[in-house]
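Worked example 2:
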Amino acid sequence: MKSKLGFAAAILIMLLLAGCGSTKEAGDTGLLSKLTEGRYSELEVREYEGTKLDPSGALPENSISGVQQVDISSYVLEVTGSVQQPVSLAYEEVLALPAYEKLITLHCVEGWDATVLWKGALLKDIIAPAVVRETAQTVIFHCVDGYTSSLPLQAVIDKEMILAYSSNGITLPPSLGFPFIVVAEDRLGYKWARWVNEIELSDDPYLTGFWENRGLDSEADIPAN
C-alpha cells in the first residue's frame, strides 16, 4: 500500500512541476494538454482518399503565448476595417455557412509539415456581409493571444481559403486554434493564424503581421524542394 501511495505522490509532484519552467504564459496547459491531445488523436480520421493524415491534435505547439482557452459562449468574430458595414458573428453563425473540406499540408518554417483534412467556411463568405470596399487589398487576422498575420485579399479569394473549425473530422483542438484557424494554403505556417477573433480589411498592401515584423518573409511562400 505504501508503495502505491508513493507512486501516486510522485505522479502528483510531476504534474505540479510540469507547470513550471515554461517560457509560455498562463494559457499553456502543460502535461495535461498532452493527455488531451492523445485523446483527440484517438478520435481523428487517419486516412482520406488514400492519403495518410497526420494527427492534428498532436501537432507541435509553437504559439507566442501558449494554448488559448476560448469561452465559446461569449466568443464573437468581428469583420472590420475597409468595409461598408462591420459585422459580428457568433461561433454557430460561422458554422451555419456552407462548409468546405480541403486536404492541405501545413508547412512550418521550423522544418516540419503535417497533412490534415480541414473543414470550415470560405473566408470570402464570412467577409461578404460586411461589403468589402473596392480599395481593400489586405486581410489582417487578429487572434485572442495578440498574434497577427496578413494575406493579400486577392489570394484569399482566388485560393478559396477557409477559416477552419474542424481537423480530421473532429472539432478543432484548442492547441490548434479553437475556435478557428486560417488555412493559408500554399503559405508557411506563420500565416496560419490561430484563435482568430477579428478579420480586418485594409487598403494598405504592405501591412504585415507578428513574425513578418520580426524579419520573416512577408510572402511566406513554401520553398521548392
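The radius of gyration is 19 Å. The longest strand covers residues 113-122.
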